[in-house]
C-alpha cells in the first residue's frame, strides 16, 4: 500500500500496546476502516466509538499526532489512495427459505468482493518493491500457524517452482528457533497471520526483527501491533456475510506475489522451472 495509508495504519499499530482499553476501542474503530475517520469531527468519533472526547484526545496524543486535525488529514490521504478495507455493506446470512440458488449467488458475490478488496491493497509500486525483494533475497522463508500454516505452505509451493532456497518454517522436526537461526538481513520471510493468531506469531516476528530479517506480513484487519514488526504489510479482509471467513483475497495476493516475482526473476527463474520439469520426467514422479 502506498505511503499515506501505510503511515496511518503503522502509527496506530506501533502505539497499540501502550494504549488503554478505551483508547484501543478508538484504535480498533479506525483500523477497521482507516479512511472513514476523515469524515468525523472528534466529538462524532467519540460518539460512534462510545468513549469520551478526552479519550479521543489522549489517543491522538499517544499515537503521536500533534492534533486531531493532523490525524484526519492522514486519514483523508488514506481515503484518497483507495477504498477502505470494508467497502461492501454487510448483509445477513441467506434465509433458509431463499433457496440454494440465492445462496450461491450471494456466496459468489461475497467471494469476488473479498478477492477484489485483497488485491486493492497492493499498489503497483508496492508490488514492484516486494517482487524485487523476494526475487533478490538470498533465502526465502514462509511462516504461519494454525490455518495460516496452510497458506504459508501454499505460497512456498508457488515460489519453489522458480527460485532456490525456499523454506517452510519451521522445517520437519525443527524447532522454530532452529529454523530462524539461518536467516538474516539478506533474507526475506513471508509471514501469514490471519485470524485467529496464536501467541507464537508475535514472538516469531520479534525474533525475526531482532535478526534484521525483512518480513512481509499477510494479515487481516484484526491484526494489532504485528505490522509494526514487518517491512511490508498487506491487509486482506476476510469477513463476509456468511458464517465462515473468506480467504479468497489471501490466496489471490499470494499468487499475485508469486507471478510478479517469477517475472522479476527472468531467465534464472525459467531455467529453474525447466530443470524441475525435466527431472519430474526423468524420475518418473508422475507415472
From TrEMBL:
Transmembrane segments: none annotated. GO terms for molecular function: carbohydrate derivative binding; DNA binding; DNA-binding transcription factor activity. Pfam families: HTH_6, SIS. It comes from the Bacteria. GO terms for biological process: carbohydrate derivative metabolic process. InterPro entries: Homeodomain-like_sf, HTH_RpiR, RpiR-like, SIS_dom, SIS_dom_sf, WH-like_DNA-bd_sf. PANTHER family: GLUCOKINASE (PTHR30514), RPIR-FAMILY TRANSCRIPTIONAL REGULATOR (PTHR30514:SF18). This is MurR/RpiR family transcriptional regulator.
